[in-house]
Hints:
This protein is α+β, with helices and mostly antiparallel strands.
Amino acid sequence: xxxxxxxxxxxxxxxxxxxxxxxxxxxxxxxxxxxxxxxxxxxxxxxxxxxxxxxxxxxxxxxxxxxxxxxxxxxxxxxxxxxxxxxxxxxxxxxxxxxxxxxxxxxxxxxxxxxxxxxxxxxxxxxxxxxxxxxxxxxxxxxxxxxxxxxxxxxxxxxxx
Length: 161
Ligand code: SME
């Protein structure tokens, strides 16, 4: 399998449509969850160049940082705290156009201006979240939500304790 990502220009939808089959090719033959999360975070960061892309994984009563691309970030987040903890609690994607306007936002970096968090739901339970931060305001919309939910939905979330 080729490990080079083909980077596309074009509309946001076109970029996702090019990226998603590549993510599937990268992950379909691999059963190790952490390996797949690492490559998905890297592929998204490489295509879109966002400030921070990564996964938090539910462990007991907290989210714990998992594979990510970008600057170091908060290690643990409690349920209901920040955008990630709220997405976990509500089991819903949350789009934040301006992080300063989100009550309780956890600022891992002052460079982060907007954010989207997508919960990973298996058997009606949130098992983790995909968190993406941008250094520009109002970066994320329903197109990102649609395609990121597709990516998150395709992850084989198994074998993780
Ligand atoms: N801003 C997030 C915390 C995680 S960092 O952005 C990587 C939040 O409010 O949950």
